[in-house]
């Protein structure tokens, strides 16, 4: 087998960066991780992703791939064992649809929750709860969105962990609770318990501290 | 004696809105594959029960309904079409790295170019003079980046028309509208893109999927009226 050189440019607290680590670990791919300082981006990063200048960037034998969901599909197509996306085209379309939903609808709403106050915050909370109900509809009785093991949508939905931590840091009541969203709550517990996921979340204390610093000003309203 | 498997009659319905850039993409993809489909025009001010049933989350077009099962989001629909009808006219390259590049650029076009076009549209309606000029300049910057990516290739994917080409072409029909509206032309700034767009228009899938320029311009004028802008 040819020498594989795999590098990942990322940051420790970024969910999209951590997604790539999950995908690589699920495939058992050895990689070199490079921590980027986003306030002082490396020439290498700017060279590999001149268009968006963002992390994560995967560099495979010198060739860069950017955008987390694009990278995950690349990983899945290059290392074909332990498939991440389902084989059936319709199931693949569903996985892609919900992953896009998470990135384009859920994440912006989650960002708003931690900075909004009062009525606006309440509105955003209702919105997220509805979104989570929609996700429950997709999960149904399955252990993970991918079935018995982690799949594309489980990896994309890692962002939910970030919202949970942010809410904890701000002393907010958890939106994703067992009473209101039992199905998704169960999934989250299984996700947090998964061996690969555990290796790919920021260290809790550091993460809580970061959230307090980033979103701390909204604590005043509580 | 070999009995060929009975081919289930494929039922393909596209819920669409004729000026929609996203709908145009799907039309091009279906035609490239030589697929017969039924196009149903939606009135976005009075959405059909079928649309609301098939896309309850976003309630938007386009929606592809294949043998009763809905697929939403144009980029996802096009990939689905490519994967189901994989034996003819591949829309995505076969190499994973080239596929990743195609997906990256299609995503970029849908997000950044769409965003800019939208803003430009708004600016064209509401602004004049310097602000409008600034809007145009920004837009040209994005197009120049795409032109750089195209380089001297006949299509974004290389020798063959594909995913990125069919993602960008629909924006060109709207770009044409803005060019008429503001008397600005990208021909000088992006000659390669103009040549590329003309090459794409020679394909039946593209010419039959994009609306007539005059009709689209008429629609644009109508939109302006609805928004109360002269």
Question: Biggest interface between protein chains, with counts per chain?
Answer: A-B, 22 and 22 residues
User: Quick check: average pLDDT of chain B?
Assistant: 88
Round the Cα radius of gyration of chain B to an integer and report it. Answer: 19 Å
Into which percentage range does the β-strand content of chain A fall? 5-15%
Largest sheet of chain B: 4 strands, mixed
Spatial separation of the terminal alpha carbons of chain A: 58 Å
How far apart the termini of chain B lie comes to 71 Å
Q: Please write the string of helix (H) and strand (E) elements of chain A.
A: EHEHEEHHHHHHHH
State the total count of DSSP E strands of chain B: 4
Radius of gyration of chain A: 18 Å
The class by helix and strand makeup of chain A works out as alpha+beta
Report the mean per-residue pLDDT of chain A as an integer.
94
In the predicted model, the low-confidence regions of chain B spanning at least 5 consecutive residues are none
Q: Quaternary status of these chains?
A: heterodimer
Please provide a written account of the structure:
The complex is a heterodimer of chains A (222) and B (230). With 222 residues, chain A is an alpha+beta fold. Chain A has helices at residues 15-27, 43-48, 68-78, 89-113, 118-139, 152-156, 159-169, 182-193, 195-199, 204-215; strands at residues 6-10, 32-35, 57-60, 63-66. Helices cover 55% and strands 8% of the residues of chain A. A 4-stranded mixed beta sheet of chain A has the order 2-1-3-4, with helices on one face. Chain A is globular, with a radius of gyration of 18 Å. Chain A starts with 5 loop residues before the first strand and ends in a 7-residue tail after the last helix. The model of chain A is unreliable at 218-222 (pLDDT under 50). Chain B has 230 residues and is of the alpha+beta class. Chain B has 9 helices and 4 strands. Chain B has helices at residues 21-32, 49-54, 74-84, 96-126, 129-150, 163-182, 191-201, 204-207, 213-226; strands spanning 12-16, 38-41, 63-66, 69-72. The N and C termini of chain B lie far apart (71 Å). The mean pLDDT of chain B is 88. Chain A binds chain B through residues 51-52, 60, 63, 65-67, 70-71, 73-74, 77-78, 89-90, 92-93, 96-97, 100-101, 134, and chain B through 57, 66, 69, 71-73, 76-77, 79-80, 83-84, 96-97, 99-101, 103-104, 107-108, 145.
